[in-house]
Amino acid sequence: MPLCVLGAALLLSGLSAAAAQGTCSGVAPAPPRRGAWVSLTSAGGRGDGRTLNTAAFARAVARIERRRGARGGTLLYVPPGVWLTGPFNLTSHMTLFLARGAVIRATQDTSNWPLIHPLPSYGRGRELPGGRYMSFIQGNGLQDVFITGENGTIDGQGSVWWDMWKKRTLPFTRPHLLELMSSTDGTISNLVFQDSPFWNIHPVYCSNIVITNVTVLAPHDSPNTDGIDLDSSSNVCIEDSYISTGDDLISIKSGWDEYGISFGRPSSGITIRRITGSGPFAGFAIGSETSGGVENVQVEHLNLFNMGVGIHIKTNSGRGGFIRNITVSEVTLDGARYGVRISGDVGGHPDASYNPNVLPVVDSVTIKNVWGQNIRQAGLIRGIRNSVFSHICLSNVKFHGAASIGPWKCRAVSGGALDVQPSPCTELTSTSGTGFCSG
Fold first, then answer.
1. S-S: 292 plus which of 99, 254, 329, 367, CB 3.0-4.6 Å?
2. What is the pLDDT of residue 406?
3. Which residues on adjacent β-strands are paired with residue 181?
């Protein structure tokens, strides 16, 4: 690898994450300039689109692990080319850097794809009982890891997995494209993620994570290809990204029924801003797996088009947990079945052991400065009879339809509504004391 290319790679990896640090201040530390580097070609890789590079990635990561004493860690440089590979693991104190024109492409031979344990907060695979397939790129228990580049591509070639799901021949839960688990101080930036087998980017049990300047793509008919799913993670910033997938663009989760309640790790301290995208489900979602709780979330400046739902907060009886202190603001929505849905009857259960009497608490949700056109139904806010959704605030929320737009529908909810079109439901307008909603 020429020294000028190496220098550019080192510089760019630093600039990518440093740029994220400048706007996500206080979330993840600025990356150190890596003191060593490994090129995938030096580990025996071939970027011809045909050679399987699984062993080359494993060798390169093993070299980085052996160099843990290197000052600032080590950069793994993936040159231009198409690097076909099976799933592989990352390690701490490393940067995975994709040069411009580099594509890390998943093999479609799923016969030897490794199985791993289910997440303890889910108790089983999300789709099927038992374990789950390892994510295409996996990191577990890491610190100081950066996945970045010059807009290189991580391609999951997910169609083979989608076909198994559609034909009901899938033996275990599909793999994510990228999963960071129980990890801290990481940045994902300046990359394209496409055609994930299942959820695209999945930080779970993580803290101090920045996701910035990413593009996430999958066909709108690809099943469950959520763009970014934050799961039982804290101190996370997502910004300046484009997402167009087959499910929710961004969703916040925290475990599934009795398993999530027992694990007890909430998602908290989350900032999401300047996101553009489209898809058949929600632009921004919370849930429905929220048994560990979700709190202190700030979402702003979303530009969404051709959505199923603009903003969707969803939970169910038996979930337990809480959803509280959520603010969503400055949203433009062009085309949706629903502008807003806050629902207490969404999502299935992992098994028959959940307790239907364990009810979630939904409190202090503010949705303000939202404008939408070509909206079919303004919104639905449906709480739970024995757990009324409280302090729900709609402020300056205006939806328009091509013809007459469906009205707001509410039940088991209290809160306030100020300057809302079409006219808000009486459950909000008749609530006494709307001072909490005037800020």
1. 254
2. 86
3. 140, 204
Q: Give the separation between CA 172 and CA 169, rounded to whole angstroms.
A: 9
Work out the angle at residue 305's Cα, subtended by the Cα atoms of residues 302 and 308, and round it to the nearest 5 degrees: 100
Q: In this predicted model, what pLDDT tens digit does every residue of 151-174 receive, in sequence order?
A: 999 999 999 999 999 999 999 999
pLDDT bucket at 7, cuts 50 / 70 / 90: very low
pLDDT digits (tens, 9 = 90+) for 41-86: 999 999 999 999 999 999 999 999 988 767 889 999 999 999 999 9
- What would the two tokens of residue 400 be? 């328009």
Question: Domain 78-437 adopts which CATH fold?
Answer: Pectate Lyase C-like (2.160.20)
What pTM did the predictor assign?
A: 0.94
Please tell me the predicted confidence (pLDDT) of residue 435. 66
Tell me which residue of 278, 188, 189, 277 sits closest to 233, measured CA to CA. Answer: 188
- Rounded Cα–Cα distance for residues 344 and 365 (Å): 14
Q: Give residues with Cβ within 8 angstroms of 404, minimum separation 6.
A: none
Token pair 């024995």 is at which residue?
386
Query: Is there a catalytic annotation at residue 195?
Result: no
CA 280 to mean position of chain CA atoms: 16
Contact 58, 66 (CB under 8 A): no
* In contact, 11 and 72? CB cutoff 8 Å: no
**144, 226, 247, 363: the active-site residue:** 247
Rounded CA-CA distance 117/8 in Å is 39
Q: Please tell me whether residue 14 adopts helix, strand or coil conformation.
A: helix
DSSP bridge partners of 81: 102
* Structure-block tokens of residue 421: 């079109």
